[in-house]
Structure formats: C-alpha cells, structure tokens
Amino acid sequence: MAKANTRAIELNPDRLLPAEPSRRAVARRLYRQVEKLPIISPHGHTDPAWFSGNRPFENPAELLVIPDHYLIRMLYSQGVSLDALGIARQDGRTADIDMREVWRCFARHYHLFLGTPSFLWLESTFSEVFGFEYRLGADTADEYYDRIADALAMDDFRPRALLDRFGIELIATTEGATDELQHHRSLQGSPWAERVITTFRPDDVVDPDQEDFRANVQRLGELTGEDSSDWAGYLNALRSRREAFKRLGATATDHGHPTARTADLPPDECKRLFRSCLQGSAGAAERERFRAQMLTEMAAMSLDDGLVMQLHAGVWRNHNRSLFAAYGRDRGGDIPTRSGFVEELKPLLDRFGNEPALTLILFTLDESTYSRELAPLAGHYPTLLLGPPWWFHDSPEGMLRYRQRITETAGFYNTAGFNDDTRAFLSIPARHDVARRMDAHFLATLVCDHRIKEEDAADLAGELAYGLARRAYRLGQ
To answer: What are the pLDDT digits (tens) for 232-255?
Structure first.
C-alpha cells in the first residue's frame, strides 16, 4: 500500500544530463540550443477526431489513462483489472464505473511507475501542462481530477490550442487501409490540413492472421471499386488507397509485422498464396510468406508513389490470449521477440536496396540487432534508415544504448531523428524533451572525449531534434 503522498514534483533543469561536471556543462549548452525547437511528430497514434472536431477533452481518465497502454500494462501487472480502468470489452460493453473512480485507482498505484519513462513523462505533464507542484497520489487524486477537468473545459486546452502551446509543427496520425478518413477530410481547406496528416497502415488487409482479414479485403474492394478477391485487383485497390491517403497529406506508410521477413515470389505463387489466405486454408508458414511478399509489394509501390515506408518488427502482439479475447488489441499485452534483418530483408534489398528514391525506416524491439545487423545495413544501403529506439526502449537508458551501438557504424545521418509513436497526446512534449536531453548527454561525451568539436555537436543536436525527421519523412516536399 502506497503511503499518503504530498511530495513535491521536482523537475531538475539538469535532469538526464551527465553527472560529471565538465560533461554536464557541455550537455547543458547543447540542450539549451534545441530545447525550444518546434516538435515534428511524424509517426504516432493520436485520434484524428481530436483535431478535426477540436472539442474539449472529456475528462482526465479518458485523456491520460485509458489510451496509454504503457500505463495499462503496468497496472494490470499489479492485479488491477481492465474493468476497473474503464477499458471497453470486445463487445463494446464497459464496466459501470465512474471516471473519477478510474482516476482514483490510477492515483493509488502511481508509485508503480517510479523509475520508468512513464513517470518522467507524467511528472512533466502534471507540472508543465497543468501547473501541479506536488505529486499525484491517493490523497491528491480528487484535487488533481478536479483541477485537470476544470482546465480541460477551457479553450486553451482544446486539441488545436495544445498543438500550438506544445510547439508541435506537424503531427501524423495512423489509419488502417479501410478507414474512410472522414476526420482528415474535414480538415481539408484549412491550415490544419498541413499540420495534422495521416499515415497509411495496411496491416488489416495484408496480414492473414488478423481475425477480420477476409472482411477487410472485401471492404477494400468496396472502397476502391476494384475486385479485391483477385490478386491484380487487390494490388490495384491498395494503390488506390495509398493515393487517397496521399491526397490527405500522408507522406509515409507503416507496417507492424511480427518479423522483418520479405520475399520476392513469382506471380503465380503470389496468386496462389493470396487465394489460400482469402479461403482461410493457408498454414502458418504460408501466411508468413504472404506477409513477406506484401512487404516487397509495398516497397515497389513506395518507389512509385514516393511514400516513405516504415517497418516495426520484433514483437509478439496480443501475447495474452485471454486478455485479447476479452478486450481486443492494444491493451498492453505485446512482448518483444528475437528478430533478424540481414537474411530477412535480403529479397527486398536485392530488388530495391540501391534505390535512393525509396526510404525504408526500420524499427525493432530486439536491441541485440543494433550493432550486429541494423547499423551495418543502414550504413551501407541507400534505401535504409534507422528509426529511433521504439516502445519498450523509448527510455533514457534505451536511447543511450541505441546511440552507443549504432553510431560507430551507421553514424547519425543514417537515422530518422526522433518520433514519439504515442497515443498519449499530452506526453508528446515530455517525450521529445527526454530525447533531446539524452542526445545532448551522448554528444557531450563525444565532445569531452575529443572525438568531435562542440560546434559539430551543436549542429548534430539540431539535426537529431528536428532536421533529420523532416527529411526522412519528406515533410514539406
């Protein structure tokens, strides 16, 4: 049981910078140069309805707790039920629980996050967005709830106002191939259309392991007027949807595959695999071959239409079978797995690896591949860039490990800058701030070791915070 808590929130201005004085002094100077740069958020999962409708957020629990699977998984690990957190079940039912009670439950368990990146993000949010000077806990839960709820009712806390306040120059949401994109369409003709863009995520129509795969492929055909039950018509339908996303500002696609395996199969084999997947007769190996082929097909389409391609591999999604059956996806039950890239990407790279017009950004949850596979690949192939440390490794230590393991081989300019990849909108400034501090930390070490000059480090800090992401995602082109 956590103790009653009235401890102060203390955001030390030198937090996450090196403890050694000379390195800290350099890191402090580097950080100050990038601290106020605009935020580019080129990949994430915030709700586009927030920005199209610009309505006030409903309440603290539905804004800060329920969408954040980092919080959900920790609370669940300590015996808190998803019903107690107001999470809807697969059938749409939600436990009869007041949102204030959800918040109180979160507050009673807030101590669980000590030492985690979530704690850093939350403390920054509570202090810098809402002005709290003391920590959330069981004894402060109601005051927090009331003050945050009162703030959310104000115009200054509506979604578009917060984009301005946070200095978010651009934010990309992520929608599935069969999404009708009504929220992005409603932004067209306004300045917000250039600041809130979509990203094409075709997993729902290229992954036969998805429970609604066949229905999604049929819907794909209905949306495009193509015969999506035919291999050629299916590919044309995907091209059509990509173009629809591009018209609404998309500059990238995103692919969340279990592995990075690719294939380059003859047309007849592609047709056979597609038919087996649609009929539900494909075995596990065939389904994996189909996903592998579809990554290569998506690369071919990206070379044609210019969309940047992102691949997030190395995760067993929905590992907790009973939780998935009851509550569906994105409930914190995803677990990192071993993954490979050298052999797995070979078929795709044999076709497209030397094409500078194609950009493929790689993400993994298997850190062991950083120095062994990813850095050498990105340090050679013009097509490849490395995405930032992702998900479980979006943390101070994870960021340092990433830089230490990839920089000697891939350098800095074969990386894609930082993206927050989050559903938790209010945490975006804190996430980018952590990344900027940790890059200043790493660069200061190179300066103090006399490996680079401080003026070079200053240039790099700006690139890592802003410039690399704009170029990697072809923003403003």
So the answer is: 999 999 999 999 999 999 999 999
What domains are there in the chain, each with its CATH number?
21-48+163-472 (3.20.20.140), 56-157 (1.10.2020.10)
CA dist., res. 106 & res. 32, Å (int): 34
Instruction: Give the SS3 label for residue 312.
Output: strand
DSSP string over 51-77: HHH-PPP--HHHHHTTT-HHHHHHHHH
Paired sense of beta strands 315-316 and 335-336, if any: antiparallel
Q: How far apart are the first and last CA of the chain?
A: 54
Tokens 């329920």 belong to which residue? 66
Alpha-carbon torsion 418, 421, 425, 431, what sign?
negative
Round to whole Å and give the CA distance between 61 and 97.
12
Counting DSSP H helices and E strands in the chain, the numbers are 22, 11
Cβ contacts of 109-112, under 8 Å, gap ≥ 24: 109/2, 109/75, 109/78, 109/80, 110/2, 110/5, 110/135, 110/136, 110/137, 111/2, 111/5, 111/137, 112/74, 112/75, 112/78
Quote the pLDDT of residue 330: 77
How many whole angstroms separate alpha carbon 190 and alpha carbon 86? 35
Alpha-carbon gap, residue 61 to 188, rounded angstroms = 31
Q: Which phi and psi (to 5°) does residue 14 adopt?
A: -100, 15
Using CA atoms, how far residue 29 sits from 34, 48, 396, 460, in Å, is 9, 37, 19, 13
Task: Calculate ∠ Cα 29-33-39, nearest 5°.
Answer: 140
Distance CA 406, CA 403 (A): 6
Q: What is the pLDDT of residues 244-290, one digit of tens each?
A: 999 999 999 999 999 999 999 999 999 999 999 999 999 999 999 99
Distances (CA, A) of 398 to 261, 404, 407: 25, 10, 14
